[in-house]
Design brief:
Blueprint: H1 2-16, H2 18-26, H3 34-37, H4 49-61, H5 64-72, H6 78-104, H7 110-118, H8 120-150, H9 156-172, H10 179-204, H11 218-221, E1 225-226, E2 229-230, H12 234-240, H13 243-250, H14 259-268, H15 277-304, H16 314-324, H17 332-335, H18 338-385, H19 392-415, H20 419-448, H21 454-472, H22 478-511
Antiparallel strand pairs: 1-2
Helix pairs in contact: 1-6, 1-15, 2-6, 4-10, 4-14, 4-15, 4-18, 5-15, 5-18, 6-14, 6-15, 6-21, 7-8, 7-20, 8-9, 8-18, 8-19, 8-20, 9-18, 9-19, 10-15, 10-18, 13-21, 18-19, 19-20, 20-21, 21-22
Length: 512
């Protein structure tokens, strides 16, 4: 696990070194924050820094750094490299600057910030896109925890109903009534799970594929054969999903996620000082990256080191191996879904009590991300239509249509056999498109302010290429994927750079 240990150290160092650089570029000061100037007892509520950090961490975590990291490891140890580099230079930078910029603009939502720096047209597109994306988040983050909870008792419909009722209550109440009280508890549970699993990993110290094995992964990818057939399913998966750009869509949370920029304004309305921004925004993203590293390494153990045999019974192992060569047989990565891996590893490694706490963290993360997603929708729509939010009836008038839309997506997801996978793909791609909007908005802000905008320009160009190329290089466009990826990426990067440089020249002429 040398690559894993190096990655952990690199992330921690990134917070202190690169995070400090980004903070100095933005230059926070002692001006009054929105939580004190605009306090309303509903959304603008000053809270202690530790509580703001816990809420921000839980808001952005969800199942993304867990499920995404588990599936991302199908691409091999390159996933660890993406988590580290993406988190330090793209994700944490994206989260810090978007959160701080929101604070400078009275806790403005992402669409409003995009409109200010990229124009009214971009704001309108961003508003519609963000609301639709939040509905996707709500649907995805109802279904996945409900599956895990149903495995311990009750049925899927009951748990979905319970989660939706909680969403309605949490969305309507002031932020310090439910979110401010229970989120820190759930955050501690999620962090306990991560630390406990990391300790078990260090005790096991399994032999896993390292970064220097990237050019020779045949031994690992062909490590499980059943009747001469690849039972892992990795080789077939990679033929349909090239590393670029699919890895960068699969692992969003834990590396860079546009969803975070929609959540940061909520905490920007609750912070007491700008100088706390690096701890809250940059620090919570680094913490999420650590969670992603742990689950990526667990996934590597589960897949490549035969760890799956250790957390299931002999009968279950025999059932899996027996169906591989049969009609409609599923390979390992199909047979054990990401929620299955979470449940099996947590209960198998940590026992009943530890497993319950760990599963609580995994269940709480998506649920609490879902409720803040709906809260963000309420705030975005209210901000756009200038609807005061002091009155409960006005809050409810916005919430009802959004919940009905999410419920419709959820019903489609349940009835469609491949519904969850399809929604997750849309969720992943939409997530990264949001990050593209945010990074370009931040680049324009830095350029206007005369600050070194290269810190967001490079990630903006890269993520623009990823999102555009993914449309072409998808499983449906497999025949073209092998030769279109590189030239498509190059064209996208050059076009985006040309547009930005043209804007810079025009801005300089106007200034002169």
């Amino acid at each position: 696990m040398i690559s894993f240990l190096i990655s952990v150290v690199a992330l921690v160092m990134g917070f202190f070194i690169y995070g400090n650089l980004i903070e100095r570029i933005f230059a926070p000061d002692d001006r009054p924050t929105p939580s004190t100037r605009l306090a309303d007892g509903v959304d603008y509520v000053p809270m202690p820094t530790w509580k703001v950090f816990m809420i921000q961490f839980l808001n952005i975590a969800g199942t993304g750094p867990i499920f995404g990291a588990i599936m991302g490891m199908w691409f091999g140890p390159v996933a660890l490299l993406w988590i580290v580099l993406g988190c330090i230079f793209a994700g944490a930078t994206h989260d810090y600057l978007s959160g701080m910029l929101s604070m400078r603009h009275d806790g403005a939502s992402l669409p409003l910030l995009v409109g200010k720096y990229l124009g009214k047209g971009s704001r309108n597109v961003m508003m519609v896109f963000t609301v639709f994306f939040m509905l996707l988040v709500g649907a995805v983050f109802v279904y996945s925890p409900a599956i895990i909870l149903a495995g311990f008792g009750g049925n899927l419909v009951i748990w979905i109903t319970v989660i939706f009722i909680y969403y309605i209550i949490a969305t309507l109440l002031p932020i310090d009534k439910i979110i401010g009280k229970i989120y820190p508890i759930f955050a501690v549970s999620l962090l306990f799970m991560a630390v406990a699993l990391m300790i078990v990993l260090l005790l096991k110290m399994p032999h896993l594929p390292e970064l220097w094995h990237l050019g020779d992964m045949d031994e690992w990818r062909g490590s499980l054969q059943v009747g001469g057939q690849d039972a892992l399913g990795i080789v077939a998966y990679l033929k349909k999903n090239p590393v670029f750009p699919c890895l960068f869509i699969t692992i969003a949370c834990g590396a860079i996620s546009g969803f975070h920029a929609t959540q940061s304004p909520m905490m920007a309305r609750c912070m007491k000082s700008e100088r706390l921004g690096r701890k809250v925004f940059y620090g919570s993203m680094i913490t999420e990256g650590l969670v992603a590293l742990i689950w990526a390494t667990i996934s590597s153990w589960f897949i490549y080191a035969g760890g799956w045999r250790e957390v299931i019974s002999e009968q279950q192992a025999a059932a899996f191996l027996g169906q591989v060569a049969g009609p409609g047989g599923k390979m390992l990565i199909q047979y054990f879904s990401a929620p299955d891996v979470v449940k099996l590893v947590c209960t198998g490694w940590l026992g009943i009590t530890g497993g319950a706490l760990a599963v609580l963290g995994v269940v709480a993360a998506p649920i609490t991300t879902g409720d803040t997603a709906f809260r963000s929708v309420r705030l975005i729509i209210a901000e756009a239509l200038h609807i005061d939010q002091h009155n409960v009836a006005r809050r409810l008038a916005i919430c009802i249509p959004t919940f009905l839309g999410a419920f419709g997506l959820l019903m489609w997801q349940i009835k469609n056999p491949d519904g969850f996978n399809v929604l997750w793909q849309y969720f992943g791609w939409s997530n990264q498109v949001l990050s593209v909007f945010t990074l370009w908005m931040l680049t324009v802000y830095l350029a206007r302010a005369g600050k070194p905008y290269v810190i967001t320009l490079v990630p903006a160009l890269f993520m623009t290429a990823v999102c555009c190329v993914f449309i072409v290089v998808s499983p449906q466009a497999l025949a073209m994927s092998q030769w279109l990826a590189a030239p498509s990426a190059a064209v996208v990067v050059l076009a985006a750079l040309a547009v930005f440089l043209g804007w810079r020249r025009k801005a300089e002429k106007v200034t002169k």
